[in-house]
Amino acid sequence: MEYQLHLIKDKKLGPLLNQANHTIKKRKNTPVRLMASIISQQLSTKVAAIIFSRFLALFEGKEPSCEQVLNCTNDQLRSIGLSQSKVHYIQNVAEFFIANKITDKQLYAMKPDAIIDLLTQIKGVGKWTVQMLMLFSLGQEDVFAVDDLGIQQAMIRLYKIKYETKKELHTKMLAISSKYSPYSSYACLHLWQWKDQGAI
User: Fold this and answer.
1) pLDDT at 199
2) Crossing angle for the helix pair 112-119 and 127-136, to the nearest 10 degrees
3) Which of these, 57, 24, 58, 47, lies nearest to 132 by C-alpha position?
4) C-alpha span between 71 and 41 (Å, rounded)
5) Domains by residue range for the chain, with CATH
6) Could you report the per-residue pLDDT of 138-162, keeping only the tens digit for each?
7) Could you tell me if 34 and 133 are in contact, meaning their C-beta atoms sit under 8 angstroms apart?
8) 7 exposed, middle or buried (CB, 10 Å; 0-12, 13-18, 19+)?
9) What is the pLDDT of residue 41?
10) What's CA 169's distance to the chain center, in Å?
11) 24, 16, 9, 41: which is closest to 154 by C-alpha?
12) Measured between alpha carbons, how far is 54 from 192 in angstroms, rounded to an integer?
């Protein structure tokens, strides 16, 4: 694949590319994808998946519209294992998408920085959350999640990064990741996979 021809130039990352071929696709129902990102904040992948399945169960297993989410009571949303703050954040997403009439098509066509500027206006939605949306739902191939704990752990191990402050770590990660562009999203997928396979 084209991204592999580019990323294999990195001597540290190159050997990880043999694990699998990754694809990045556009997915529909962006507000629900964003809600899923909020649900997954500070949770393991497994726990997040369980809570998201409970979330869908509130709507007979189907992905809800923003209006349906707002019709749920706080108690219903709390009952699936969400904190009160996450309940409010999910409601904020629904309200924002309705008020601004945001569509999937509109987001697909926007530049990464513009997407971040737009969606981080929603209380409870930070840059990392939007980056996960761009990578897993909007088909963006050049997303580097410098704030993601898994990416940090993988790069510290893989590149033997020495640092004293979080700022220094970020600076070194960004310097390394500049070589990933325009396929940073794929690099993140391989780093996550390497970490999840027990390399760390």
Assistant:
1) 56
2) 130
3) 24
4) 23
5) 2-23+145-199 (1.10.1670), 30-136 (1.10.340.30)
6) 999 999 999 999 999 999 999 999 9
7) yes
8) buried
9) 85
10) 20
11) 16
12) 25
